[in-house]
Design goal:
This protein is α/β, with parallel strands linked by helices and 323 residues long. The protein has ten helices and 13 strands. The protein has a single domain, classed as Divalent-metal-dependent TIM barrel enzymes (TIM Barrel). It is 38% helix and 17% strand. The radius of gyration is 19 Å and the shape is globular. It catalyses: D-mannonate = 2-dehydro-3-deoxy-D-gluconate + H2O. Pfam families: UxuA (PF03786). Its EC number is 4.2.1.8. Keywords: Iron, Lyase, Manganese.
Length: 323
Protein backbone atom coordinates (compact mmCIF):
# COMPACT_ATOMS: atom_id res chain seq x y z
CA UNK A 1 0.00 0.00 0.00
CA UNK A 2 1.23 3.47 -0.80
CA UNK A 3 0.19 7.13 -0.99
CA UNK A 4 -0.48 9.13 -4.13
CA UNK A 5 -1.79 12.59 -4.92
CA UNK A 6 -4.89 13.57 -6.88
CA UNK A 7 -6.96 16.64 -7.72
CA UNK A 8 -4.38 17.84 -10.22
CA UNK A 9 -5.73 19.37 -13.42
CA UNK A 10 -2.41 19.67 -15.24
CA UNK A 11 1.26 18.71 -14.74
CA UNK A 12 2.05 21.92 -12.88
CA UNK A 13 5.74 21.69 -11.86
CA UNK A 14 5.14 23.23 -8.43
CA UNK A 15 2.43 20.73 -7.53
CA UNK A 16 4.38 17.77 -8.92
CA UNK A 17 7.38 18.84 -6.84
CA UNK A 18 5.09 19.12 -3.81
CA UNK A 19 3.84 15.57 -4.46
CA UNK A 20 7.38 14.24 -4.83
CA UNK A 21 8.66 15.97 -1.69
CA UNK A 22 5.77 14.73 0.45
CA UNK A 23 6.24 11.12 -0.62
CA UNK A 24 3.63 10.48 -3.32
CA UNK A 25 4.32 7.56 -5.63
CA UNK A 26 1.26 7.81 -7.88
CA UNK A 27 -0.41 10.78 -9.55
CA UNK A 28 -4.06 11.10 -10.59
CA UNK A 29 -5.32 13.90 -12.82
CA UNK A 30 -8.87 14.98 -12.06
CA UNK A 31 -10.88 17.04 -14.55
CA UNK A 32 -7.68 17.46 -16.50
CA UNK A 33 -7.04 20.33 -18.85
CA UNK A 34 -6.34 17.96 -21.72
CA UNK A 35 -7.80 19.39 -24.93
CA UNK A 36 -10.90 17.68 -26.30
CA UNK A 37 -10.50 17.22 -30.06
CA UNK A 38 -13.59 16.00 -31.92
CA UNK A 39 -14.94 14.55 -28.66
CA UNK A 40 -11.72 12.64 -27.89
CA UNK A 41 -8.74 13.12 -25.55
CA UNK A 42 -5.72 12.89 -27.88
CA UNK A 43 -3.01 10.27 -27.40
CA UNK A 44 -0.10 12.67 -27.84
CA UNK A 45 -1.44 15.04 -25.18
CA UNK A 46 -1.92 12.20 -22.69
CA UNK A 47 1.68 11.10 -23.27
CA UNK A 48 2.88 14.64 -22.45
CA UNK A 49 1.19 14.41 -19.04
CA UNK A 50 2.77 11.01 -18.34
CA UNK A 51 6.26 12.17 -19.29
CA UNK A 52 5.92 15.26 -17.10
CA UNK A 53 5.02 13.12 -14.08
CA UNK A 54 7.84 10.67 -14.72
CA UNK A 55 10.35 13.52 -14.65
CA UNK A 56 9.64 13.71 -10.92
CA UNK A 57 10.10 9.98 -10.35
CA UNK A 58 6.40 9.22 -9.96
CA UNK A 59 3.86 7.20 -11.92
CA UNK A 60 0.84 8.62 -13.73
CA UNK A 61 -1.60 6.03 -12.43
CA UNK A 62 -4.98 7.32 -13.58
CA UNK A 63 -7.11 9.99 -15.14
CA UNK A 64 -10.46 10.55 -13.49
CA UNK A 65 -13.61 12.55 -14.17
CA UNK A 66 -13.27 13.81 -17.73
CA UNK A 67 -15.47 16.72 -18.79
CA UNK A 68 -19.02 15.53 -18.14
CA UNK A 69 -20.05 16.83 -21.56
CA UNK A 70 -18.06 13.97 -23.11
CA UNK A 71 -20.52 11.45 -21.63
CA UNK A 72 -23.79 13.25 -20.94
CA UNK A 73 -25.73 11.46 -23.69
CA UNK A 74 -24.15 8.13 -22.71
CA UNK A 75 -25.37 8.55 -19.14
CA UNK A 76 -28.82 9.89 -20.02
CA UNK A 77 -29.43 7.88 -23.19
CA UNK A 78 -29.50 11.01 -25.33
CA UNK A 79 -29.51 11.27 -29.13
CA UNK A 80 -25.70 11.43 -29.36
CA UNK A 81 -25.15 8.38 -27.15
CA UNK A 82 -23.61 6.07 -29.73
CA UNK A 83 -21.33 8.77 -31.12
CA UNK A 84 -20.17 9.66 -27.62
CA UNK A 85 -19.53 5.98 -26.89
CA UNK A 86 -17.37 5.72 -30.02
CA UNK A 87 -15.46 8.79 -28.86
CA UNK A 88 -14.99 7.30 -25.40
CA UNK A 89 -13.79 4.02 -26.90
CA UNK A 90 -11.10 5.98 -28.72
CA UNK A 91 -10.25 7.88 -25.55
CA UNK A 92 -9.96 4.68 -23.50
CA UNK A 93 -7.69 3.19 -26.16
CA UNK A 94 -5.59 6.35 -26.09
CA UNK A 95 -5.18 6.15 -22.31
CA UNK A 96 -4.09 2.52 -22.55
CA UNK A 97 -1.68 3.14 -25.41
CA UNK A 98 -0.19 6.10 -23.56
CA UNK A 99 0.70 3.77 -20.68
CA UNK A 100 -2.02 4.84 -18.26
CA UNK A 101 -3.24 1.77 -16.32
CA UNK A 102 -6.56 3.16 -15.02
CA UNK A 103 -9.37 5.47 -16.10
CA UNK A 104 -12.16 6.40 -13.70
CA UNK A 105 -15.30 8.44 -14.14
CA UNK A 106 -18.65 9.32 -12.60
CA UNK A 107 -22.14 8.25 -13.64
CA UNK A 108 -23.76 11.49 -12.60
CA UNK A 109 -24.34 14.21 -15.21
CA UNK A 110 -25.20 16.71 -12.47
CA UNK A 111 -21.78 16.16 -10.83
CA UNK A 112 -21.08 16.79 -7.12
CA UNK A 113 -23.73 18.64 -5.10
CA UNK A 114 -23.00 20.72 -2.01
CA UNK A 115 -24.83 23.37 -0.01
CA UNK A 116 -23.40 25.91 2.47
CA UNK A 117 -20.03 24.85 3.95
CA UNK A 118 -19.56 23.87 7.59
CA UNK A 119 -17.09 25.27 10.10
CA UNK A 120 -15.19 22.42 11.74
CA UNK A 121 -12.15 22.05 14.02
CA UNK A 122 -10.39 25.32 14.80
CA UNK A 123 -12.47 27.28 12.34
CA UNK A 124 -11.43 25.24 9.32
CA UNK A 125 -14.10 24.90 6.64
CA UNK A 126 -15.41 21.66 5.19
CA UNK A 127 -17.90 21.09 2.41
CA UNK A 128 -21.43 20.11 3.48
CA UNK A 129 -24.73 18.90 2.11
CA UNK A 130 -28.25 19.50 3.40
CA UNK A 131 -30.85 17.93 1.14
CA UNK A 132 -33.61 20.12 2.56
CA UNK A 133 -32.00 23.09 0.84
CA UNK A 134 -32.27 21.53 -2.65
CA UNK A 135 -35.23 19.16 -2.32
CA UNK A 136 -37.44 21.38 -4.50
CA UNK A 137 -34.77 22.07 -7.10
CA UNK A 138 -36.18 21.58 -10.63
CA UNK A 139 -34.81 18.84 -12.92
CA UNK A 140 -31.40 19.91 -14.21
CA UNK A 141 -31.67 17.97 -17.46
CA UNK A 142 -35.19 18.89 -18.50
CA UNK A 143 -37.08 16.00 -16.92
CA UNK A 144 -36.88 13.22 -14.34
CA UNK A 145 -34.68 10.18 -15.02
CA UNK A 146 -35.75 7.17 -12.96
CA UNK A 147 -33.89 4.12 -11.69
CA UNK A 148 -34.92 1.70 -14.46
CA UNK A 149 -33.89 4.09 -17.21
CA UNK A 150 -30.58 4.93 -15.59
CA UNK A 151 -29.75 1.26 -15.00
CA UNK A 152 -30.54 0.45 -18.63
CA UNK A 153 -28.21 3.21 -19.79
CA UNK A 154 -25.43 1.99 -17.51
CA UNK A 155 -25.78 -1.62 -18.64
CA UNK A 156 -25.69 -0.58 -22.30
CA UNK A 157 -22.42 1.27 -21.72
CA UNK A 158 -20.72 -1.34 -19.52
CA UNK A 159 -21.38 -4.15 -21.98
CA UNK A 160 -19.72 -2.14 -24.75
CA UNK A 161 -16.79 -0.51 -22.95
CA UNK A 162 -15.62 -3.38 -20.73
CA UNK A 163 -14.48 -5.66 -23.59
CA UNK A 164 -12.59 -2.70 -25.07
CA UNK A 165 -10.81 -2.12 -21.76
CA UNK A 166 -9.98 -5.82 -21.47
CA UNK A 167 -8.56 -5.84 -24.98
CA UNK A 168 -6.39 -2.80 -24.24
CA UNK A 169 -5.29 -3.94 -20.78
CA UNK A 170 -6.69 -0.94 -18.92
CA UNK A 171 -8.94 -0.99 -15.86
CA UNK A 172 -12.01 1.22 -15.57
CA UNK A 173 -13.82 2.25 -12.41
CA UNK A 174 -16.84 4.35 -11.50
CA UNK A 175 -16.91 6.95 -8.72
CA UNK A 176 -20.03 6.84 -6.53
CA UNK A 177 -22.55 9.69 -6.82
CA UNK A 178 -21.80 12.43 -4.31
CA UNK A 179 -24.00 12.83 -2.38
CA UNK A 180 -25.48 9.30 -2.62
CA UNK A 181 -29.03 10.58 -2.11
CA UNK A 182 -32.06 9.45 -4.13
CA UNK A 183 -31.95 12.25 -6.69
CA UNK A 184 -29.44 14.64 -8.20
CA UNK A 185 -31.46 17.34 -9.88
CA UNK A 186 -34.02 14.85 -11.11
CA UNK A 187 -31.53 12.09 -12.01
CA UNK A 188 -31.58 8.85 -10.00
CA UNK A 189 -28.00 7.96 -8.93
CA UNK A 190 -27.88 4.20 -9.49
CA UNK A 191 -24.66 3.60 -7.55
CA UNK A 192 -25.84 5.12 -4.28
CA UNK A 193 -25.75 1.88 -2.27
CA UNK A 194 -23.62 -1.21 -1.71
CA UNK A 195 -26.09 -3.31 -3.70
CA UNK A 196 -25.80 -0.83 -6.55
CA UNK A 197 -22.11 -1.60 -6.86
CA UNK A 198 -22.72 -5.33 -6.60
CA UNK A 199 -25.23 -5.03 -9.43
CA UNK A 200 -22.71 -3.04 -11.49
CA UNK A 201 -20.16 -5.83 -11.21
CA UNK A 202 -22.74 -8.42 -12.16
CA UNK A 203 -23.32 -6.67 -15.52
CA UNK A 204 -19.86 -7.79 -16.65
CA UNK A 205 -17.75 -9.66 -14.10
CA UNK A 206 -14.32 -8.33 -15.00
CA UNK A 207 -11.37 -6.54 -13.35
CA UNK A 208 -11.91 -3.90 -16.04
CA UNK A 209 -15.33 -3.13 -14.49
CA UNK A 210 -14.33 -1.91 -11.05
CA UNK A 211 -14.64 0.93 -8.52
CA UNK A 212 -12.93 4.19 -7.85
CA UNK A 213 -13.44 3.60 -4.13
CA UNK A 214 -14.26 7.08 -2.85
CA UNK A 215 -14.36 6.15 0.81
CA UNK A 216 -15.68 9.59 1.71
CA UNK A 217 -18.74 9.23 -0.51
CA UNK A 218 -19.27 5.60 0.47
CA UNK A 219 -19.09 6.70 4.11
CA UNK A 220 -22.04 9.03 3.39
CA UNK A 221 -24.25 6.07 2.39
CA UNK A 222 -26.76 4.80 4.92
CA UNK A 223 -25.31 1.31 4.33
CA UNK A 224 -22.17 2.52 6.11
CA UNK A 225 -23.93 2.91 9.47
CA UNK A 226 -23.28 0.41 12.27
CA UNK A 227 -19.76 -0.35 11.00
CA UNK A 228 -21.08 -1.42 7.61
CA UNK A 229 -18.29 0.37 5.77
CA UNK A 230 -15.57 -1.97 7.04
CA UNK A 231 -17.38 -5.02 5.71
CA UNK A 232 -17.86 -3.38 2.32
CA UNK A 233 -14.19 -2.40 2.13
CA UNK A 234 -13.25 -6.00 2.88
CA UNK A 235 -15.71 -7.37 0.33
CA UNK A 236 -14.56 -5.16 -2.52
CA UNK A 237 -10.85 -5.56 -1.76
CA UNK A 238 -11.12 -9.34 -1.69
CA UNK A 239 -13.03 -9.23 -4.98
CA UNK A 240 -10.11 -7.17 -6.34
CA UNK A 241 -12.42 -4.43 -7.56
CA UNK A 242 -10.85 -1.44 -5.78
CA UNK A 243 -8.66 0.45 -8.25
CA UNK A 244 -7.56 3.08 -5.75
CA UNK A 245 -9.05 4.90 -2.76
CA UNK A 246 -10.15 8.45 -1.99
CA UNK A 247 -9.25 8.18 1.69
CA UNK A 248 -11.24 10.91 3.45
CA UNK A 249 -13.74 11.18 6.27
CA UNK A 250 -17.22 12.63 6.79
CA UNK A 251 -19.42 13.42 9.76
CA UNK A 252 -22.08 10.72 9.46
CA UNK A 253 -23.59 7.97 7.27
CA UNK A 254 -26.53 10.05 6.09
CA UNK A 255 -26.71 10.75 2.34
CA UNK A 256 -28.98 13.75 2.88
CA UNK A 257 -27.17 15.49 5.75
CA UNK A 258 -23.40 15.41 6.26
CA UNK A 259 -20.26 17.50 6.18
CA UNK A 260 -16.65 16.85 5.37
CA UNK A 261 -14.26 16.33 8.27
CA UNK A 262 -10.52 16.18 8.76
CA UNK A 263 -9.09 12.79 7.91
CA UNK A 264 -8.68 11.91 11.61
CA UNK A 265 -12.17 12.98 12.70
CA UNK A 266 -15.57 11.96 11.38
CA UNK A 267 -17.51 8.75 11.87
CA UNK A 268 -15.07 6.33 10.20
CA UNK A 269 -12.24 4.86 12.27
CA UNK A 270 -9.49 5.46 9.71
CA UNK A 271 -7.00 3.13 11.38
CA UNK A 272 -9.56 0.33 11.26
CA UNK A 273 -10.39 1.17 7.65
CA UNK A 274 -6.72 1.14 6.61
CA UNK A 275 -6.14 -2.15 8.41
CA UNK A 276 -9.15 -3.63 6.62
CA UNK A 277 -7.60 -2.75 3.26
CA UNK A 278 -4.31 -4.27 4.39
CA UNK A 279 -5.80 -7.46 5.77
CA UNK A 280 -7.80 -8.00 2.57
CA UNK A 281 -4.65 -7.90 0.46
CA UNK A 282 -5.07 -4.44 -1.08
CA UNK A 283 -1.97 -3.48 -3.05
CA UNK A 284 -2.79 -0.17 -4.69
CA UNK A 285 -2.65 3.42 -3.45
CA UNK A 286 -4.60 6.02 -1.45
CA UNK A 287 -5.15 9.69 -2.26
CA UNK A 288 -6.59 12.43 -0.08
CA UNK A 289 -9.26 13.58 -2.55
CA UNK A 290 -10.39 17.03 -1.38
CA UNK A 291 -9.55 18.38 2.06
CA UNK A 292 -10.94 20.95 4.52
CA UNK A 293 -9.71 24.50 3.99
CA UNK A 294 -7.51 25.72 6.83
CA UNK A 295 -6.41 29.24 7.76
CA UNK A 296 -3.65 30.55 5.51
CA UNK A 297 -3.83 27.65 3.07
CA UNK A 298 -3.73 28.00 -0.70
CA UNK A 299 -6.91 27.60 -2.78
CA UNK A 300 -5.67 24.14 -3.83
CA UNK A 301 -5.07 23.16 -0.20
CA UNK A 302 -1.34 22.47 0.14
CA UNK A 303 -1.45 22.46 3.95
CA UNK A 304 -4.51 20.24 4.11
CA UNK A 305 -3.06 17.82 1.59
CA UNK A 306 0.30 17.64 3.37
CA UNK A 307 -1.51 16.79 6.61
CA UNK A 308 -3.62 14.09 4.94
CA UNK A 309 -0.65 12.58 3.10
CA UNK A 310 1.41 12.37 6.28
CA UNK A 311 -1.50 10.83 8.17
CA UNK A 312 -1.99 8.16 5.50
CA UNK A 313 1.72 7.36 5.37
CA UNK A 314 1.84 6.98 9.15
CA UNK A 315 -1.15 4.63 9.15
CA UNK A 316 0.37 2.47 6.42
CA UNK A 317 3.71 2.29 8.21
CA UNK A 318 2.17 1.49 11.59
CA UNK A 319 -0.03 -1.28 10.20
CA UNK A 320 2.84 -2.79 8.19
CA UNK A 321 5.10 -2.92 11.25
CA UNK A 322 2.40 -4.55 13.38
CA UNK A 323 1.66 -7.28 10.83
Amino acid sequence: MRVGLAHLESPNPQNLLFAQQYGATDIVFNRSKLPIVDGVLPLNEIVKYRLAVEQYGMKLAAFENPAVTMMTDVILGGPRRDQQIENMITTVRNFARAGIPMFTYGWNPSQVWRTAPKEIRGGAVGTAYDHNMVADYPPVHGREYGADEMWANLEYWIKIITPVAEEEGIRLGIHPPDPPSDSHGGVYPVLNSYDGYRRLMDIVDSPSNSILFCQGTIAEMSDSANDGIYGFIDEMVRRERVLYVHFRNVSEPDPEHFHEEFINTGHVDMYRAMKTYHDGGYGSFFVDDHVPHTHGDTPWGHRGRAFAMGYMQALIEAIAKQS
